[in-house]
Design a protein that fits this description.
The structure holds 2 protein chains of 2 kinds. Chain A is mainly alpha-helical. Chain A is built from 5 helices and 2 strands. In chain A, helix 1 packs across helix 2. By secondary structure, chain B is an alpha+beta fold. Chain B has 3 helices and 4 strands, in the order βαβαββα. Chain B has a 4-stranded mixed sheet with strand order 2-1-3-4, with helices on one face. The longest helix of chain B is centred in the middle third of the chain and has 14 residues. Chain B is globular, with a radius of gyration of 12 Å. The chains are: A mainly alpha, B alpha+beta. At the A-B interface, helix 2 of A face helix 1 and helix 2 of B.
């Protein structure tokens, strides 16, 4: 699968749930590439913006879409990576604030 | 004026890290970086101990500019720390 195919597949599944790809396409495709690198490296699509341990059980909360996406999009309009965002975020109706890391540090498997 | 030492702890897959490096390049700032996800075993462990000292949450990018620690790609804070 290449980045374009991944983009289209995810878009079809995630948009109806209210999660849109950021309209910063360059960034989104960098992240698609990152997800594919992690799939190759770890066997699952760990979040490209976080350090995965390589142990699926430890990393399950950060397999994209991560469990933090929902609260982050609710609070900030965007996930930690600025990959999935709300409609309002894309339309510039809410500020593009930095999304702080919500994952508790003790969850890091190292 | 001398430029402060700049070090970036980053991930090779992370777009915030890429933006940070790109920004520093555009500002023609000299910096060192280490892509922590490309390290294995003890090398990774040792670097993570360093990162934790600066940023206990161990998130990326962690940017050290002189004495200042900036967590995340925050352009204004980076500029200020660099005196730009």
């Amino acid at each position: 699968m290449d980045a374009q195919q991944l983009y289209e597949t995810l878009k079809k599944v995630q948009e109806p749930k209210g999660y849109y790809f950021s309209n910063d396409k360059k960034r989104v495709f960098e992240l698609m590439d990152g997800l594919l690198v992690n799939k190759e490296r770890y066997g699952y699509m760990a979040c490209p913006c976080r350090l995965a341990s390589g142990n699926r059980e430890n990393d399950k909360d950060i397999i994209c879409p991560c469990v933090y996406r929902k609260p982050d999009v609710e609070e900030f309009g965007s996930c930690y990576c600025n990959l999935y965002v709300s409609k309002e975020w894309n339309e510039g109706k809410i500020p593009h604030d930095y999304v702080p890391e919500r994952r508790p540090p003790e969850k890091m498997g190292f | 004026m001398d430029q402060p030492n700049v070090k970036v702890f980053s991930l090779s897959t992370c777009s915030h890290c890429k933006s940070t490096k790109q920004f520093l390049n555009e500002c023609t700032v000299k910096y060192e970086f280490v892509d922590v996800d490309l390290l294995d075993g003890n090398e990774r462990k040792a670097i993570l101990e360093d990162v934790k000292k600066f940023n206990p949450r161990c998130s990326f990018p962690t940017i050290i500019i002189g004495e200042k620690v900036i967590v995340g790609y925050k352009e204004e804070e980076i500029k200020e720390a660099l005196g730009l």
